[in-house]
Amino acid sequence: MTVRWGIIGAGDIARKQTAPAIRDANGAELLAVHRQSMDAAQAFADEFGAAKAYDDVDALLADPDVDAVYISTPVYLHASQTIAAARAGKHVLVEKPMAMSSAECRQMIDACATHGVELMVCYYQRFNARHQKVRELVSAGDIGRVITATASMTTQNPPRAGAWRHDPALGGGGVVMDMGVHCFDTLRFILGEVKSVTALVDTSPGTPRWMTPPHCCSSSRVARMAWLWWPSRRRMWIPTWHIFLTFGAQEGRYGPRRCSQRIQQDHCAC
Fold first, then answer.
1. CATH assignment of the domain containing 83
2. Is the pLDDT of residue 205 over 50?
């Protein structure tokens, strides 16, 4: 069976990541794309071989040939567009963060359940082969009992006109909503669900905003996260995580040009 996809909000992330993935995947076809401008939508469709272009979301959702949609619009539109897609009988893959609030998230979940369609949030780090292997090792206890874990993510995102991620009314919460969710989700995937939360926020004038909340996960594990938008225009992308155990340490670094992994089977560094 081939799943015929439509993209709602065919912007930068769709061009760099999702559209090529759909186009090249087995059992998937990029059928339709949506942008606010018909000229831009048609250009995107031509670039990736999609048969249809739309400048109206409702028109794409009314297309009976579309089976599923990928939603990559600004966050404030996620809930309404997901609910509309569910009502139209389309399966939904929605970009992170899922919505502007937990209440909107519940509405999206309820709508998709009511109309019998699948809903998934684009937390792609769960499908990273390294993360899956680390989860396997931690779950099996092969590298000791987890004591604490850390995750950090730094990406270049200087202030600029029209950047919706910098506007809480459009993006929902700045760097925490935009990048911090990957730290949350990856450590939840590896360590288990969160049991309790505390947070420390530094908002010193003239410095980047850091947040370093410790989270108590299952089995008395403690996870700490930190993230920031780097204000410089110099390109930067440095996601990192560390997991400390009683008999070893697992460290991972990944980026566009560098991937490395190591396991230290000696004494815990903590």
1. 3.40.50.720
2. yes
Q: What is the pLDDT of residues 107-166, one digit of tens each?
A: 999 999 999 999 999 998 899 898 899 899 889 988 788 888 888 777 666 677 777 777
Spatial separation of the C-alpha atoms in residues 192 and 215, rounded to whole Å: 11
Q: Are residues 155 and 117 in the same domain?
A: no
> Is residue 110 included in any domain, yes or no?
yes
Residues 143, 113 within the same domain: no
Q: Look at residues 84, 103, 122 and tell me which one is the last residue of a structural domain.
A: 122
pTM score? 0.77
90 included as an active-site residue = no
* 3-state secondary structure (DSSP) of residue 147: strand
Q: Return d(Cα 102, Cα 94) in angstroms, integer.
A: 15
Which of 16, 52, 90, 96 is labelled catalytic? Answer: 96
Q: Which two tokens stand for residue 182?
A: 């990957």
Work out how many domains the chain is built from and give that number: 2
